[in-house]
Every structure is written in C-alpha cells, then in structure tokens.
Write a structure and sequence with these properties.
It contains ten helices and nine strands. By secondary structure, it is an alpha/beta fold. It folds into two domains: 13-183, no CATH class; 237-366, Glutaredoxin (3-Layer(aba) Sandwich), CATH 3.40.30. Helix 3 (67-91) packs across helix 7 (171-183). The N and C termini lie far apart (97 Å).
Length: 369
C-alpha cells in the first residue's frame, strides 16, 4: 500500500527567477546606487531629517559632540552600512539576502513616509536633484512587495545555519565598505578671496594701514575702529557648515565661522548697538510668515535678513521693506533649517529662536537683553 504523501510546507515552495534577481541584483544595485550618489556629493544636508534628528540626539545632546564634527563620519558610516548590506545580499545566503532587503526597504519606506507627512520636497536619497520622496516611496514599496511575494531560488538552510554563515561573511564586506566610504577624500575648500586687481603703480609708502573698515557704516573712525571692526572673511570656506545656533547665546557673533561669510560691505555694523538677524530661505513659508508678522512694518530695531542661496521652490517676496538684506555665498552647503532669529547687542548674541511657530520663543528672542 502506497503511503499518503504529505503536503509540501510553505517553506518548501520552489523559488522564482524574479525573486532571485530581486535579491541578488535589483535591490542590491538600487541600494548601492543610492549610497554612491551620497558618497559622490558628500553633502550632510542630504541625510533625511528623521535620521539627523536621531543622530543629533545621540551625538550632540547625549555625547556633546558638535554637529560639524560628527555629521561627515556619520554620513560615511551610513553609506558603508548600505554598501556592506548590498554586498551581503549579492553573495551571502539567499535567506539572509532576502531578509536584509526586506529590512532595508522597510526602513527606507518608514523614513520616506515621515518625510512626506512633514511636507519635505526632497529626501536626498539620490543626491540633491534626485526623485521626490513620493516617487522614492513608490519605488521602494514596489521592491519591498516584490521581495515579499516572489521567493528566490537557492538552497535553504535552518535559521541558525543562515545566521552563522552570514556572521562568517560579514567582516569582508564590512571592511571593504568602510574602506570605500571613508577612503573618498573630503571635498576641497571653496575659495572666497576675490581676484586681486591688476595695478601698474606700486603701493605708496605713506599708506601703511592695510586694515580698513569694510564700508562706511561698518566701523567708526578713530581709536574704537579696530575694536569694533568686523573680522575679514576667510580666504577659503569649508564645503559645508552646520551651526548649532542654540549654543551661540552669550557668544560673540563674529566668533561664529559661518557669519564671517557675509559678503562685504556689511549692511550695518553688527558689532555696535542692537540688531535682529533673520536667517532665511527665499522659498521658505515659515520664514515669510515670521517676517510678515514681526518685521513687515516700521522697525524699531535695525534688522538684517540673511538669505541662504539654495532655494528650490517658488520664491517668496521679502515682506520686510526696512530690513537690510544680504545673502550667503553660493557653492557652500548650509546644513540648518530656517528661519533662525538672532538678537545681537553690541556684537554679542543675546537671543536665539529656531522655532518660529512658537510665539513665546520668538518674543523671548526679540526682547532678549
């Protein structure tokens, strides 16, 4: 008598070529492409805000490490993880390949969902000019569904054996990935020094004072000029700046590197008297609202709007008619959200507000002494 055959368990279902291609080529290639774009641009601003919120909490608030010190290594570390994961998907046990792909794509979809809910126009997944978060979510979700629906071909082992084999392989792709991510040199500094004008006459011997005010209003004549003069701009700027404005309170404004990038001549002598400064982007709705509500009429305190030149959306008209206006130099990445409101008294920052939606914080910064 022929024994009854037992039904095949779900784990015994045959795999498909589609599932294999997704695990071994499509998803790893997609992950490596995203990592490659981030490594090519080396722009910390491309890191999604949900990610930097977590890293800021760990490194800045918990460990006390400045943003400008940790952002570049953190970005490269994330790139290394993506490259190592893709290598494991390509060469590791097929079960581990599928699990890694599902985990990565699930994480990507979660981050993209948060970005879309917050109204973000870009996710930085494929560089500054990459697809929108909505398009990226559609692609990542489609790949995730593909991995879940189509089983890959290949030998299936127990979970313990798969984990053991993955652990044995892990050091090699991890070392290779770290070497790639951290081996790419940092971007070169950006020259800010203007070209020296051609002259046919030698400098006169009587003009021995090589330090002069940057404009007629930036420093008074006489003995106090040297003390109140705004420092000269650096000859070379860093590729990117990530200031922590909350730490500026009580510090001199001209001691902050990013503020020395303000083009000359300055709209006002920021080292004398009381000033408000609004760091803004010309396509920033919150910046426009802050300026409209608090700076659109007659100003009792001199105010400077300082624009970050990386706007990509619809430009909004500056409602502050009486404000002095200036713009940071182009070609530099400014890793911070706008608007930022500063109140400066005799060159010292006395008030800071980075959350313009909180009216109490805005008023506290405006009235700071």
């Amino acid at each position: 008598m022929k024994p009854a055959s037992t039904p095949a368990s779900p784990s015994a279902r045959p795999g498909t070529l589609v599932g294999t291609l997704l695990c071994r080529l499509v998803v790893p290639g997609w992950v490596v492409a995203g990592a490659g774009f981030k490594l090519w641009e080396r722009n910390p601003q491309l890191l999604p805000k949900p990610v930097t919120d977590v890293t800021d909490f760990i490194f800045v608030k918990t460990l006390g490490i400045p943003r400008e010190s940790y952002l570049d290594p953190a970005m490269r570390g994330m790139v290394a993880i993506e490259i190592a994961a893709a290598m494991l998907m390509f060469a590791g046990p097929i079960q581990a390949s599928r699990a890694i792909g599902v985990g990565l794509l699930g994480l990507f979809c979660t981050i993209l969902g948060v970005l879309i809910a917050s109204g973000a126009a870009s996710c930085g997944c494929f560089g500054a000019s990459g697809p929108s978060p909505t398009a990226m979510l559609a692609i990542d979700a489609a790949l995730l569904v593909g991995l879940l629906v189509f089983r890959p071909r290949g030998q299936r082992t127990s979970l313990a054996d798969g984990l053991r084999r993955t652990a044995i392989l892990l050091p090699v792709p991890l070392l290779v990935a770290v070497g790639i991510a951290f081996g790419v040199p940092k971007k070169a500094g950006i020259s800010l020094a203007p070209p020296e004008p051609a002259t046919t006459e030698p400098a006169t011997a009587t003009n021995t004072n090589t330090t002069k005010p940057t404009d007629a209003t930036s420093a008074p004549a006489g003995p106090t000029a040297k003390a109140n003069a705004w420092p000269a701009p650096p000859a070379t700027a860093k590729p990117w700046y990530a200031p922590e404005f909350d730490t500026w309170k009580g510090q001199r404004l001209d001691a902050q590197e990013v503020m020395l990038l303000i083009p000359r001549p300055l709209p006002a002598n920021l080292n004398e008297g009381r000033h408000h400064i609004v760091l803004m982007r010309e396509d920033c709705d919150h910046c426009h609202e802050l300026l409209t509500k608090y700076f659109s009429g007659k100003l009792e305190t001199p105010t400077l709007t300082l624009a970050v030149p990386d706007a990509t959306g619809e430009l909004l008209e500056n409602p502050c008619v009486e404000c002095g206006k200036s713009t940071f130099p182009k070609g530099i990445t400014y890793v911070f959200s706008t608007p930022v409101l500063l109140t400066v008294q005799d060159g010292v920052v006395v008030g800071v507000c980075t959350n313009s939606e909180d009216a109490d914080l805005v008023r506290a910064a405006l009235n700071a002494k």
